[in-house]
Amino acid sequence: MCITMSRSRWEVRYAGFRLLMFLLLCLLFPRAVSANDEQGDVVFSPRLQKAYFEIQKLRLPAARELIDDERALNADNPFIAYLDSYADLHYLLISEDRSRYKIFVQQQDNRLERVGRLPEKSPYKRLFQADIRLHSAFAKLKFGNEVSGSWEIIKAYRLLEDNHKKFPAFTPSLKSLGLLHVLIGSIPENYTWIAKILGLKGNIAQGIRELREVVKEEPFFRQEAELIDLLLHAYTLQLSPEQQVRIRQWPKEQPDNLLLHFFATTVLMKENRSEEASHFLADAPAGKEYMPFPFLLYLRGEIALQHGDYDDSFTFYSRFLKQYIGFNYIKDSYFKMFMCRWLAGREQEGTGYLQKVTQTGSTIVEADQFAERFAKEFGEGKISPTQKVLYSARYATDGGYFQKAWELIKTVSEKSFGTTYEKAEFNYRMARILQKSGRTNESVPFYDRSIALGQTDAGAGGFAASSALQMGYISKKNADNQKAAMYFKKAMSFKKHEYKNSIDNKARAALTELGQ
């Protein structure tokens, strides 16, 4: 599932992992699908198949009931342990329930032991073991246990590589192996030596080819592999026009699939299309059949903020905080509640929310890190009222309201701001608005100016790095690969800013595509 933007690239890219189409399955496999005699005792019974797809729709209560019914008949079926882990992962990524997370970790060894009973001649043995470890990895990374989560990924990788060597014709291994090959291939250059020492080999082009081989050769796993491919392009690479069309099609094909509506919403918001995203969000299915998903309220708050509907936005963030039991986006929500008041000229009503920013939540995700930094700097008097226009323009740009953003940003100039940080941000915001408005050539001097300012003041490094990344994309689009590579490397050269992980990942992936 595509859950949230997090410090850990693994969890965001696993957001919709293992999404299949139940109707397609019924057409292609009208009888229960099971491993053949040489592969062991994996039984894909009709009940478990349905549970599998219910999980992918976020209909977890119904899925767990189906799994429990099957457990009463054949508790030794390894597919049950696999689905237990799969359902738990979806729940944990959305709920961030710490008590359930502890139980999940405690149950992992037992689940691995169950699938480990499969004979060595079964290709499902290592595939299930690897995927259960990946479930554990993404959950651990989500909950801040990065070292343990990273080791789970390493173990999963080795299991998948071994399985592919033993059973080269078993294409389903490639859906997880392809994902890992892309992720490892996008590791920033200064960390690649670690991957080599651990025996991890990554290649973005290879990983995409493997995923597309599954799409071509495995009807049963086709949609799963296609979704992974789309997620990787949405959050690490760049979406093609055809992929953007596909993202819009899926929720219409499966109107009862909450996960697909969430995925379409978040990707469109990332692509600065919040107005369109709001329609998918409004059409998202709801009810007792689905697990609680308060993060949808957060997204509604984001869209309202981008549109400038500050009172509505404030209400959505408030409702999100009341219903949410997790730990990420708490600081960010209180920060946004302050912004709703500050940007509306009601600063005194918002100051209490900045205090909560420093007192609650975590700093795992970049948004929460930024919120805490802002709260501290605001308290120290480092945030000037002139920055209001930059924030308003930023939110309007994020939502795709480019004309509104332009009307805001053109009321100021670099001379309107007193610090290098503010000047760098102004130039970056101006460049981004021009670029998104189709005025790319006009954006270039502003990007270059932001880069130059960032090189003189480390505090402005985030805007300089973002500007360099965009200049890399512009140069790449203009077929000037030498200049593009120079800008991508420059983007990675800026140190210790809030967006370093995500920018470095994207720059590294772009360099890999350029053959560097």
Compact description:
The chain is an all-alpha fold and 516 residues long. It is 70% helix and 1% strand. It contains 27 helices and 2 strands.
Provide structural commentary:
With 516 residues, the protein is mostly helical. The chain contains 27 helices and 2 strands. β1 and β2 form a beta hairpin. α5 (78-95) runs parallel beside α7 (123-142). Residues 1-39 have low confidence and may be disordered.
Features:
516 residues; mainly alpha; Serine Threonine Protein Phosphatase 5, Tetratricopeptide repeat; disordered N terminus
Helix content range of the residues, please? over 70%
User: Structural class of the secondary structure composition?
Assistant: mainly alpha
Measured on Cα atoms, how large is the radius of gyration? 23 Å
Using DSSP, what is the number of strands? Answer: 2
And the CATH topology of one domain? Serine Threonine Protein Phosphatase 5, Tetratricopeptide repeat
CATH superfamily of one domain: Tetratricopeptide repeat domain
Secondary-structure element order, N to C: HHEEHHHHHHHHHHHHHHHHHHHHHHHHH
Shape: globular
| Widest sheet, order of strands | 1-2
CATH class of one domain: Mainly Alpha
Unreliable stretches (pLDDT < 50, length at least 5) are 1-39
Beta fraction: under 5%
Average pLDDT reading: 87
Query: How many H/I helical runs?
Result: 27
Distance between the termini: 31 Å
By CATH, the architecture of one domain is named: Alpha Horseshoe
Largest sheet: 2 strands, antiparallel
